[in-house]
UniProtKB/TrEMBL annotation, chain B:
It comes from Methylopila jiangsuensis. GO terms for biological process: osmosensory signaling via phosphorelay pathway. The keyword Mitochondrion does not apply. Keywords: Coiled coil, Kinase, Membrane, Phosphoprotein, Transferase, Transmembrane, Transmembrane helix. Residues 253-489 form the Histidine kinase domain. This is histidine kinase. The chain crosses the membrane at residues 185-208.
């Protein structure tokens, strides 16, 4: 890890417990040991992100699923990218949706990476591991 | 309906009224002509009467002139005094025949004959006296005069003349009065005719106005009805479009939501498999070092039961994934924006035949497009997919016992174009003709890979392009898929983007 930066906290917003577990497993397998905060709905995730606890936690990286029970990931993305402090935090959209329009909208709103969850597990695992490797080297601005 | 019937009756009444009016006008015109003719004939009669009267007077004139001449001659014994006589007597024949000719009635003819007879009597007496005088027998001539026969004849002549003139005068007055009456009648009739014509014009005007108003109202009603109808059609179309959209959205959401648990099933199956491998390694090591610790069941579970279970889970999830992808593709196709362009069907067929070259080469099949396939304006991608599916199917389900022949024919039918993709393959049983178009359904021998998606996809695409598809097939003979498209694709006005 370069320089004296504080470790990045990964905020995972994912309603499907199984998906969350699989993502976590594969990220860990890539050698990422950062703290992962998991939220199963948009409301609690937004409450955390906008709290002082989040600002104290250091730099954030957000893994976002689009299909959430209480709101869409797009709504959350909109809030994050308009937020004074959060807007610089990288957002990785990780979802089953591969609709072109949806992908376009996410990038328009300022999402940094858009990944479709492949149904084939090997591909999925590889993708998440590569994401883990990516996370381990990427620079994240301090919040 | 009642309104329409009422309107019809009013129309009939109006026609009747107009016909009556024109009939009355015709009667007035006819009677006017008749009166004019009658008047002319009366005028002619009047003229005849006047002529006849003067003819009667002229007969008397002859007698008087002749008598005047005779008297002068007898008195003066000079031949020159005889000239009135000489002038009058030759006119007797002409005047008599004229009188006879003009005598129109029986009594006139009788009177005329009497008059002529009286004239002749008088002229005979005069001729005799003139004759005697010329012979110098003056006394004898005077004796004849004195015999009073001439005077009597003259009296008869005068009486007859007066009588006849009186009769004719009366007749003239009568005729004249009648003629005058006829003239007045004509005036009255013409006036009535003019009034009738005016009334008719007025009624016609009113009728025309009323008719025009009725037509205007009917037009307005029709326009309203049309507007209502258009609105109803637009509403219904909008409803259908929104229902269709809902189904598309539903299919899309369902397929996505089904995917999420599938990711878990597959993911954790892999985790399970990974865990099994770890366990197997452990058991294998244990079995190597202390075989008595490993039960046969445990070994069997790790070596056979678990891999088998995991294998079934994997094939099932893989199949489920394919099905979900199929639905997703179908719903995505339904959401795709259609961009119509000119599509040359023969070129499309040639291109598809090229992509299938390997398969056709292997089986000795031939794909041909009949010359003169009509082009059409439609969405190229959807159209190509439809043809690709149909031709691919034809190649896939050929009868191996004979060389495959796949022919694409086409013709223009009014505003539509119809294409037939005909093969001599294995054919489809009549009971399956509808079933083959259903999603995930297949028919006949299941010896080819596939999800039962192709024709469902084809039908959805054809419908989306405003067309229809039907199937004509007999097992063992071959199949013909007939697709009909509008020659020029017209987007529905309420088509959702």
């Amino acid at each position: 890890m370069p320089n004296n930066q504080r470790p990045v906290v990964i905020v995972m917003i994912e309603d499907d417990g199984g998906h969350a577990r699989l993502i976590e497993k594969n990220v860990r397998r890539a050698g990422v040991n950062n703290e992962i905060r998991h939220f199963v709905d948009g409301t609690s995730a937004l409450a955390f992100l906008q709290s002082s606890e989040a600002s104290a936690a250091g730099p954030l990286l957000i893994l976002l699923d689009l299909n959430l029970p209480d709101m869409t990931g797009i709504d959350i993305l909109g809030v994050i990218k308009k937020h004074e402090r959060l807007k610089r935090a990288p957002v990785v959209v990780l979802t089953t949706t591969d609709d072109k329009v949806e992908i376009q909208r996410c990038y328009d709103l300022g999402c940094n990476v858009y990944i479709t969850k492949p149904v084939d597990y090997d591909t999925f695992a590889t993708a998440i591991r590569q994401l883990g490797l990516f996370i381990s080297v990427m620079q994240v601005p301090d919040a | 309906m009642a309104e329409a019937r009422n309107g019809k009756r009013v129309g009939r009444n109006e026609v009747l009224l107009l016909a009556l009016g024109f009939g009355a006008l015709a009667v007035v015109g006819g009677s006017s002509v008749w009166i004019a003719q009658r008047n002319a004939s009366f005028n002619r009669q009047i003229a005849d009467t006047l002529e006849f009267r003067s003819d009667v007077r002229r007969i008397l004139d002859i007698a008087q002139d002749a008598e005047t001449g005779q008297r002068g001659y007898l008195l003066t014994r000079r031949e020159s005094y005889l000239s009135p006589y000489e002038a009058a007597t030759p006119m007797r024949d002409a005047r008599a025949s004229s009188l006879r000719a003009r005598a129109a009635t029986e009594s006139q003819r009788e009177n005329a004959e009497q008059l002529i007879k009286a004239l002749d009597t008088k002229l005979a007496e005069l001729a005799r006296t003139v004759e005697l005088s010329r012979a110098g027998r003056w006394d004898e001539a005077l004796e004849v005069v004195r015999s009073d026969s001439g005077r009597e004849a003259m009296v008869t002549l005068r009486t007859l003349t007066d009588k006849m003139v009186g009769v004719e005068t009366q007749r003239f007055q009568e005729n004249f009065a009648y003629s005058e009456w006829l003239g007045r009648l004509q005036l009255v009739v013409v006036t009535i005719g003019l009034l009738l014509a005016a009334a008719l014009a007025l009624v016609a005007q009113i009728l025309v106005r009323r008719q025009a108003r009725t037509i205007r109202e009917a037009h307005a009603e029709l326009a309203d009805a049309n507007a209502g109808l258009e609105q109803a059609v637009a509403d219904r179309t909008a409803e259908l479009v929104s229902a269709n959209e809902e189904i598309q959205r539903f299919a899309y959401i369902v397929s996505h939501d089904l995917r999420a648990p599938l990711v878990n099933v597959m993911g954790f199956t892999s985790e399970l498999d990974a865990a099994r491998k770890t366990l197997k390694e452990q058991i294998d090591q244990v079995a190597e070092k202390a075989p008595e610790l490993v039960s046969g069941d445990a070994k069997l579970a790790v070596d056979e039961d678990l891999p088998e279970a995991i294998g079934f889970i994997r094939t099932s999830t893989a199949k489920m994934d394919r099905l979900i992808n199929a639905i997703l593709r179908l719903s995505r196709e339904g959401r795709r924006v259609i961009t119509p362009e000119m599509v040359k069907v023969d070129e499309v067929v040639v291109a598809i035949a090229r992509t299938l070259h390997q398969q056709t080469e292997a089986t000795g099949a031939r794909i041909s497009a009949e010359p003169g396939l009509p082009p059409l304006v439609t969405d190229r991608m959807s159209f190509e997919q439809v043809f690709q599916n149909l031709i691919e199917n034809a190649v896939k389900y050929l009868d191996r016992s004979r060389p495959g022949v796949i022919t694409v024919r086409g013709r223009r039918v009014g505003p539509q174009v119809e294409y037939a993709i005909e093969d001599n393959g294995r054919g489809i049983d009549a009971k399956d003709h509808e079933r083959v178009f259903e999603l995930f359904r297949r028919a006949g021998a299941q010896d080819q890979p596939g999800e039962g998606l192709g024709l469902a996809f084809v039908r959805a695409s054809v419908r989306r392009l405003g067309g229809t598809i039907r199937l004509d097939s007999e097992p063992g003979r071959g199949s013909t898929f007939i697709v009909t498209f509008p020659a020029v694709y017209r987007p529905q006005q309420t088509e959702a983007s």
